[in-house]
């Protein structure tokens, strides 16, 4: 299906009058032509992004999405939306870690104990080149883990 047919189908089934009524109550000055032009541009962006799996574009109060369903069907969607949101944050009494962070901390602890072991070995025998080389490697690994 070509771009013009997709635009026609979506614009024909979209209730612009209802969107304009809501916008008017919000004190926004849009015309039906304004919304139609915005919608056409969003649909054009979707159409031109065909190589991407799922695409979402928005402008003002209009949102357009396109997705492929099972690799055989294309779904275009045009929505009118406004968002009223609120945020609140606070410090946790005790921070929690993801499994990856926990694993990283365990790995860092193990490497630090290996480093200490090698440092003790090197202190007892400063000619121990293997212990010195291990110290340098382990310190580099710890620095990478910290970043």
Number of strands: 3
Low-confidence stretches: none
Mind describing the biggest β-sheet?
Answer: 3 strands, antiparallel
Number of helices, counting only DSSP H or I runs of 4 residues or more: 5
Task: Strand order, main sheet: write it out.
Answer: 1-2-3
Q: What does the overall shape look like? A: elongated
How many angstroms does the end-to-end distance come to?
A: 49 Å
Evaluate the radius of gyration. 30 Å
Approximate helicity band: 55-70%
Chain-averaged pLDDT: 89
List the secondary-structure elements in sequence, H or E.
HHHEEEHH
β-sheet strand percentage? 5-15%
Taken together, the total number of domains comes to 2
Class per helix and strand makeup: alpha+beta
Please characterize this protein's 3D structure.
The protein has helices spanning 3-13, 16-25, 32-48, 99-124, 129-146, and strands spanning 54-59, 62-69, 73-80. It is α+β, with helices and mostly antiparallel strands and 147 residues long. It has two domains: 3-80; 99-146. The protein has a three-stranded antiparallel sheet, with helices on one face. The longest helix is centred in the last third of the chain and has 26 residues, at 99-124.
Q: What keyword list fits this structure?
A:
147 residues, alpha+beta
Layout of secondary structure:
Elements: H1 3-13, H2 16-25, H3 32-48, E1 54-59, E2 62-69, E3 73-80, H4 99-124, H5 129-146
Antiparallel strand pairs: 1-2, 2-3
